[in-house]
Amino acid sequence: MNTVFLPSYSVGSDVYNQIPKVCGAYGKTAVVIGGKTAISKAKDALLAGVHNSNIEIIDFIWYGGDSTYANIKKLAQNPQFQKADMVFAVGGGRAIDTCKTLCDMENKPVFSFPTIASNCSPVTAVCVIYDDETHGFKELYFPQKSPLHSFINTKIITEAPYEYIWAGIGDALSKQYETGFSSRNDEMSHTNALGVQISKNCSDTLLQYGLEALTSAKNHQVSEALEQVVLTIIVSTGLVSVLVINDYNSCLAHSIYYGCTMLPQGEKHLHGELVSYGVLVMLLLDKQQTEFEKVYAFNRQAKLPTCLKDIEISTKEELDIVLDKVMTTNDIVHVPYKITREMVYDAIMDLEIYHQEHLN
């Protein structure tokens, strides 16, 4: 048996006005949990959204700063959380992942209110959990379902730091290519095939609207291009994540990201920034020259990484550390052919050569 809970969403500058209509059936009290900055940006709009309705926001609670089990346990013991009928998860991926895990464990309805467009966490049924002490990656947690509804306020998202949507585009660029590569030649169920089909439009939309959307984000303006990109980052990639098996959700581009995080300088770069570099390496390794050239040209214009210098890797020793990690990741296990260390290294060197030839 296969049960799929598809995410739903509302999008727009005044989307919080829909809260009573969408959430009213789930109770009368809500607690807002999220990041400090996110709560400060969304608080007035949230209160206005429930004004004169049958829903009362009883408290605003900081999520703890990271999606760790220690923070989740602390939130579960909070009297206001226990009292509330539902949770409004506000912020970025780590805050929303904390709330999704918490509400799954405590069997409480959760609605997401992303304040940045950096990933698809607001609509997915997967959470990244970090170690309580080191705050490094610990494991993935899989709730039974994604948030019941996501309220995507484009006005609030345009007010966020530019780097978030910039890196969000970099991360979302990978979905079409990684899902297509990982699922190649597989006999798929209807659900997986549907997810793979949706993925085929992710990168194309970003390449079409991405630069215009970035201009809108810089100017803190809502535009059609920005909405297209925000919906691709959050909803399109999120639908793919919900529908396909985890083996299809990521591949070599994310392996490259994990490799880069083994270096101290890797921590200075945003997730999607490093993933966008990994996309270029993967496309070269897979001999997708036409797609590679399109993404490379886009990355250059968007000022996303196109060479090792851009991600601060300058020595063979550093590259060896990256490759050591790449070859241990599960992301390159379910692939249409064996990926070797030499193949990854050669693709990285091919990218260096191509970059040098196209500097002007």
Automatic annotation (TrEMBL):
Coiled coil: none annotated. InterPro entries: ADH_Fe/GldA, Glycerol_DH. GO terms for molecular function: glycerol dehydrogenase (NAD+) activity; metal ion binding. Its cofactor is Zn(2+). Keywords: Metal-binding, NAD, Oxidoreductase, Zinc. The keyword NAD applies. Pathway: Polyol metabolism; glycerol fermentation; glycerone phosphate from glycerol (oxidative route): step 1/2. Residues 9-145 form the Alcohol dehydrogenase iron-type/glycerol dehydrogenase GldA domain. It comes from the Bacteria. Binds 1 zinc ion per subunit. It is an enzyme of class 1 (oxidoreductase). PANTHER family: GLYCEROL DEHYDROGENASE (PTHR43616), GLYCEROL DEHYDROGENASE 1 (PTHR43616:SF5). This is Glycerol dehydrogenase. It comes from Megamonas rupellensis.
